[in-house]
Structure formats: structure tokens, C-alpha cells
Amino acid sequence: MTISKPAASHPGTAVTIPRPFTAYRGSDPYVFVSYSHADAKEVFAELAFLRDKGYRVWYDEGIEPGAAIWQQTIVERIKACDFALGYFSPVAMGSEYVVKEILLLLKEKKQLVTIHLSETALPAALELDLVAAQAIMKYEHLEAEYFKRLLTTLPASAIEVTPPVGPEQDFRAEIEFRVRKALGWSRELADELTQFGELLGLEAERVQTVLADSLQTLGIDADYDNRLDQIRKLAATLVTSGEITPERRRILANRGQALRIPPAHWESVVQQEAARRARELIAADGAAEASHLLVSAVGEVVPQSGEIRSLLEELEQGRQVTPALVVEPAQGPVAEAAASPAAVEERSARLATATLGEAEIRWIRIPAGLFLRGCPEEFVKYVESEYRVEADAFRTYPVRTEPLDDFWISRTPVTNELYYAFIKATGHRFPAGWRGTSPPFPRAEGDRPVTGVTWQDSMDFAQWFGARLPTRAETEKACRGTDGRLYPWGNQFDSARCNTSEAGIGALTPVERYPEGVSPYGVLDLVGNAWEWVADEKDRLRMTVGASYERIGEIYGAGFLDLSRPPESSAKDLGFRIACNNLGDLKGASLSFDDAG
Known about the structure:
The protein contains 21 helices and 18 strands. The protein is of the alpha/beta class. It has 4 domains: about 5-160, 3-Layer(aba) Sandwich (Rossmann fold), CATH 3.40.50; about 165-215; about 225-320; about 340-370 and about 405-590, Alpha-Beta Complex (paralog of FGE (formylglycine-generating enzyme)), CATH 3.90.1580.
């Protein structure tokens, strides 16, 4: 005799999903299930799993929502149940019937666990009432971890199947004992347990079924090591051919997602493979290449490993103690420039002034060496506690140590006066907001940072001066020094040292108004006043740093933080400053040096 099961249809499609089993109809404790028929495929697979585990489960078997029998049946089964599961998705939360079921469960004070199949916003009718309910974000868990957590929430009283006795029970007990003793899973342990099950007299197929079932209950993903090894091989291939660029990181992320490897795990593997490759490069006199690879290996989830930090420290020490090569005196204009008094003076100076036409810029030299980057966990917790906001995004700036060569950076952002000199010399277009007067900005605002400029406008000014935009790392070091302080002056925010929303000024101020906000190297206006374009690109956007007079300085002014924008955009609180490797690169600028020696 053939028994056909009822089926559920997905709305708007011809696809039917067979019912996995007949819903429980007795009076013993059972689990009530609320779900949307649109999620039937995923939900039914889970219900079949729960039924195989012996749980009594009631779910509607195709009753048309809204029908009289539906309402009567739902009310009866909710009132009689001991426990409930609510499967949430955007579609389910848009269903008045699912919402009504959940509200009735809450009214009846039933123990309820909500399973979020995907990221789902709760309707207003449920948001407050579900505050105390337990929720499992299925989409954030590996499959084995999810099912383990799900089973721990279900009451034992809802189980009707008697646990197996005899050899199978002994085998399950042995699996749990050996797995817990080994603190993990390995191929060797799998072979040992397989042999043990067969010695107990179980058939080979049953041995593998019981083994897989027990591992799932224990939260062990038996195939995980094999999948992780695929990521390791990919990472090894990528680091062999160069740095971990954003494009390569996207390849790793996509592969990790396909293999169900959490970002924290595959990022750790990338760091391990980068460290291994770096040692090979160091042994082959490729110190510079090794350093760049190590820096690029740190992603947005896992903090820099101790191994990478140690290698970078070794490389920096080696660079500092390596004596200069003794070579024959060079000839020609290049050698003459390197030996010129200006070049010699630049190498020992800390401050300088460069003048090009009507434009005069003060420069600060930032010495070479390691510095501490990223967001400390204490700051994340502080922001979440003090401001009652979700600050997980800050964890995408892991703490790490990085090396930088020495460079020069402008002491302040480029001002209106400086930018006007550039326009008069080149005929470049006006920034947004400037008028056709002379000067095209209020006379009293010449010493304010120029704003209303795009990323390309900033680049054009820098190239006119023979300079460039600073990198993200350069601005962070110029701001935080080497010790990882949050702000130029230390770890405690001080609204008297910068122009942010806390100051209540609500407008741009002169770039030298806050000498108390100076960085360890003497750089000014790095927090607040105006955001600043930097050279770096992120997902086809350009980064800006430093916050502005409109932003909360305690959060957005932290030296590790950046904000990405379209490069063609401009804003009334967005400007820039410039940088260069050597002041000798500046086009035709006359130089004077201070603080020499």
C-alpha cells in the first residue's frame, strides 16, 4: 500500500514540499512549530531532524491559513503545547498568521525560542514582547553548532523515542567519551571509533550513521578539517605570489563562505601562511617583500598574531642595525643632489617650510619605525556601554603592529588661502560653495581648512606641489604616535582640544586654533574641524579620516577610524592635507629647515 504525504506549496511557485511526517496529535508534552509556508523547505528539514531525535512535534500540515478550521486548530494546539519554536524570516514576519501565532504563544506564557533563518527585522507588534524570548540566529552559526544549540533548548519531556540500548548505546557513549577526552576531532580518532563500532557487532553502514549523528549532537563537524585545508592551500598559493590585496581577500572570503569556514578561522590560516612565506623571503634576503606581506595578511576580524608581530619586530631591528653599504663615490647630478646641503639637512631635520609661489606649507617629519594600529577591545565596550549603540564595526580594525618608512606630512590641513593660490596658478575649478568674488571665500576664513573638494581635487593640489595624499597608515601614525593612543593627546577624549560636535561651535575654525590638540610629532587639527581625504581605496570608495565639527569626536575622532565615500563626492566638512616621502620631490619649492640635528 502506498501512503502519500500532504505537501506545502511555496506562494507564487509550482514547487511543492512533501510533509516530512504526520504531526503529533496526542496529549503528551510536545513542541508547537510556527513558520511561514514560504520557508517550508528549510523548516521541514529541521522538523524531520527533530522527529528523528525522538521529539513530539506539531506543525500545521497544509491547513489553509485563515480558514475557520485553521484558527480553531492553531488555538487548541498552542494552548496544549509545552514548548514552541518560531521560525523567523522576512517573509514570515510579513505574515499576519505567523505574527498572530507568536502573539498568542506569548499571551499564553508558553516557553518560546525563535529561530532566525536570516537577518530579520521584527514588526512593531512583536519587538517589545519578544525582548525576553530566547533567540537563535541560525545564519550566524555553522550547521553543527546550530543544531547543538537547538537541541539544548528543547525540553527532554517532549521526547517519546526511548534511547537505543545495547551495542548502539555503548557505541554512542564511547564516541562522546573519546571525543571529549581528545578535545577535538581527527581522522585518526574517526578510524579508531569506526573499528570500535564494528567490534561491537554493528554493521558498517550503521556505524557511520551513529557516528555522524553523535558528532552532530556534540557539535563536531567531522569534515571541517578537510574544508579548512582547502582554504590553507589557497592561502599558500596566494602568499607565494605576493601580498594579500583586497581582491585576493575577497577571493578568500568567497571561498570561506562556500566551504562554511567562519571568517575568524580562515583569517587565522592566512596569517599562518603569510608568516611561513615571510620566513622563506627573509632567508632569501627579501626583507622588504616579507614586511609588506605580513602587513597585508591581517584582515578585519582576527587581531595580528604574535608570530607576525615578532617577525615585524625582527625585520625592524634588522633594518636599524644594518650598516650602510660602502660603495665607490657616485657621479652625476643624482649624486650631487643626494650630497647637497639641503638633502643632508633634510635627513636630520624634524620641521621644515616649503614655499611655492604664494603657497607656504609647514611640514613635519614622521620618523621610520613600528607603530601600533587598530581599535582596542576596551574602546568597543566603552562605546557600547556609554552610547548604547552597537560597535561591532570597530572590531574590523584589529590591533596590530606595522612598520612605516619615514615621511613628511603637512602640519595642518590645506587652507582656503593655500587652495586659492593653487587655483590662481593653475586655473583649477573652484570648490563647492566658493563664489566669484576676490577672494572667493569670506576674508576672515582664509585660515580655515578648504572644503567642498573631491578626492581628485585634493590629488590635483598635491601633485601641483610635487606631493601626494597621505596614506591611511601615515595619518594614523601621525595622529597616534607609536603607542596606540586613541587621540593625539592620549586616551581620554577632551573637547577643549578639538572642534567636534561636543564643542558646540557648529562651523569650521582656523587650523591652528587648537595647539593643545597637537600630536606626538607636532601635527595639528587631526581630530575634528574637517574630515580629510587619504590615498587609500576600499571597495571602490576612498577613505576619509579625522571626523569634523558635526561629528561626535570621542567616537569618530579616534585615530583608528575611517569613513569611506565616493571619490567624486564633496562636503562642507571635508578637506585634506598632503604628504611626501622627501621634501626634495616638491616641484620648484624653496625649502627651509628647523630643528636640525
